[in-house]
Structures are given as structure tokens and as C-alpha cells.
Amino acid sequence: MSPLTGSGYTVSLVGIDGRVIASAQASTPSATTCANAAAAVVSPPISTSNARVYYMDALGVIRYLAPNGDAGRATSVPIGPSRHSMFAVSPDDQRIAVIVDDFTATGANTRLYIEDLNGGGHHAELFGETGGFTLWPTGWHGANNLVLAKVPSCTQGGGPGSAGPQEFHVVDPATAFRRFTVGGPGCLIAGWPSPAGAVCESDVQATVLSWNAATLRTFSVQGFTPAYLSPDGSLVAAIVNGDTVIQESIKTFPGMQACGWIDDTHVFSGGDAQRQLRVGDINTGNVVPIAAQGDCVGRLPGGL
Predict the structure, then answer these.
(1) How many angstroms separate the CA atoms of 297 and 302, rounded?
(2) Among candidates 233, 235, 234, 255, which has minimal Cα distance to 244?
(3) pTM of structure
């Protein structure tokens, strides 16, 4: 996804060979503040299913793009001067989970609903809260688990967790009952999750967690650093002194800053001043530039 700094932005689908195979443009959603006192903390206007990427425009219309170029309108979500919606489409393209936030000087009024992606049927209002924290609909783990990220409602800058996920909640999409909590105050989420789980960190230790909150393994870190778990859970790509280090294989990609995985052997990265994206092959060590600029915001297939 290109930066959300202009009137429009571009969504690009990229292969493991670095080729851009499909792209689309949309008007940029308006920036939202907490009554002009601080910036509202919102997720990228992007979600991926197993077959498509979904993206939101300035009017709250959600459109889709598939690798074969198929594109269209899916649905719409509520927006307003101080209202912002965030969403996650189920892997099978059948349902959509939406968080609607009304931001205030003291935080956000949050509500969660789920409905059919096409037509809005089976609409269910599941959860509401008010305060200094809100939720991001991060993805779906299997068919019957919705993953929500706990985040601060507003930020004026700060340390780890001040403008992104602190922990993940695995909830029942029919009732919003929380089944598991992944991460937390003593081990903040360190990077975007994968189907295998997520990495959380303290100042000295990183912990790999499954979606049932079980500890799979740990490794040492020197201060909080971004870290990303591969889809199969076997590898972690961590940022160390501006380089991407694959922890388990002690492989390093100099000058690359990982922001996720495309598959189990290809790490996706950007991070330089020009936001130049690259794909690194962990088997060969080869690095391929991508003819697109911006940030990585998801992968296909999109299920967690």
C-alpha cells in the first residue's frame, strides 16, 4: 500500500518474484483525530481473504482486487468527521467484521459488528466499550475465531505499543466471547501476526506464541524490536541494527527491514528512505526489488 499522505493511494499485489501482478487506486480515507488533541490510532484500510485484497476509500466503500485482475465493490462501512471504521474479511469472502470508532478527546466509543459481506445480512452487534483503548479487527483464525488487536485509542507518540497492537484477543465471532489473549502488558506484540501465531517482547526477551496463547519458544533481544513469525511458525524475521535477521538460521539481509512474510521462504521488506519494497529469499539469500513503493499490509492467503 502506498502512503496515505495524498488524495489517493495505490494497492499492489506482489508475487514472490517481485512482480506487481495487479494494482488498484482509491481515494484516501480522511485522517481522524481525538478532538484535535491527539492522533487517532487506526489500522491500514486493508484486509485480505484467501483470494482477494479488500481496500476502503474516503466514502467508506470497500472494494476488492484479485490476483487475476478481477475487481469490484463489496460493501460499505460507517464513516464521519470523527468516525472511522476498520474491517477484516473472512478467508472465504463470506463475512466481514467491522469496528466502528467515534473518537473523542478522552478516547473512543467502540462497537463491533459482523455481517454478511454481500448484502449485509445476518447483521449482529456484538460488543461495545468506551475509553482509552479500542480494537482493530486483525483477521480470522480458521472459520470460527476472530482476532482483534487491543490498541490505544489515541496517541501523541511514545514507545512500543503506543500506536499499534499491544495484545491480540481471539474471540468467538458469534458472541465476541474471548477465548484466548495473546501477548499483554509484560510482553507487547512485536509485529504483524501469521497463521502460526505472533511474537511478543519485553526489553530482553522475545516470545513466540500460538493462537491458543501457548509459548512455543523464546530468544534474547536487546530492546524492543519488530519481529515477524513465518506462516508455518518455523522462522522469525527480526530487525537488528537496521538489518533483517532470520533468527533460526542466523541468516542476515543487510539494509533490509522486514515487515512480513509472503510465504515460508520469502520475507517482504521495505524501510529505506524511498519506501522501496523488496523480497528476500531465505534459501538463496537473493534480494529482488519490487516496482512499487509503500508499506506491506497483508498477504494472500489472508487467514490467520
Answers:
(1) 11
(2) 255
(3) 0.96
Indicate the residue type of 29: P
Query: Cα separation of 16 and 266, whole Å?
Result: 7
pLDDT, tens digit (0-9, with 9 covering 90-100), for 282-300: 999 999 999 888 889 999 9
Q: How far apart are CA 154 and CA 80, in angstroms?
A: 17
Residues 6+ away with beta carbon under 8 Å from 82: 32, 33, 35, 102, 103, 104
Closest CA to 201 of 235, 229, 226: 226
Is residue 166 classed as helix, strand or coil in its secondary structure?
A: coil
Q: Domains (ranges, CATH) in the chain?
A: 8-293 (2.130.10.10)
Three-class secondary structure of residue 150 per DSSP? strand
Instruction: Give the C-alpha separation, 250 to 86, whole Å.
Output: 37
What SS3 class is residue 15?
Answer: coil
On whether the CB atoms of residues 49 and 91 are closer than 8 A, the answer is yes
DSSP state of 130: E
